Amino acid sequence: MSRPIAAPHATPATAPVPPGAFALWGEVAGPATLTVADLREGWRQHRAEVVFDCASAGPQHHTFAGPLLREVMAVARPGFDPARRKERSRFLVSVSGGDGHHAVLSWAEIDADFGNTPVLLATRMDDEDLDAAGTQLVVPSDRCGARYVSAVTGIWIGAHRLPGTPPSEG
């Protein structure tokens, strides 16, 4: 009998995440809880100038800075062999925000061997620190900001499996 697989939007089975922090969890060897300050101090900061072309508000220009999502997730040691590209390409990333908003990306989308999209976990927006507001997921290649997630509360990493497929057979 296969065991149930946690849904990407489920909450981690750990202690509550403090305000301004987020949980990095899922099919990983080293789940972690990180803050904006951790992201600013522990990783190289990348800069992205973006334009949201929103239907309701018109174009909005913003500048974000923060580490690459893939570099931050590497600290959790996702449950795949990094040398096996096809194995990596099955993994998904689900990001949840404080307002209930969620976005899903594929590992291949952000992996340097595949899409190489420079997705950020922003620590600054328009030259202002985001410590009080929380980390923001930034997908610079998106024309609209629908996959931007404010006040990130959780990042789940896991493999896509067909229904009923045990994790060892994924």
- Compute the CA-based radius of gyration: 16 Å
Helix content: 10-25%
Which stretches are poorly predicted, pLDDT < 50 over at least 5 residues? 1-11
Strand tally: 11
Task: Please list the strands of the largest sheet in the order they lie side by side.
Answer: 2-1-11-5-6
Strand content: 25-35%
Largest sheet: 5 strands, mixed
Q: Name the structural class.
A: mainly beta
Mean pLDDT equals 86
Oligomer: single chain
SSE string, helices as H and strands as E: EEHEEHHEEHEEEEE
Number of helices: 4
Protein architecture, described:
With 170 residues, the chain is mainly β. The chain contains four helices and eleven strands; from the N terminus they run E-E-H-E-E-H-H-E-E-H-E-E-E-E-E. It has a five-stranded mixed β-sheet. The chain has a four-stranded antiparallel β-sheet with strand order 3-4-8-9, with no helix packed on it. The longest helix is centred in the first third of the chain and has 7 residues, at 36-42. The protein is globular. The chain starts with 20 loop residues before the first strand and ends in an 11-residue tail after the last strand. Residues 1-11 have low confidence and may be disordered.
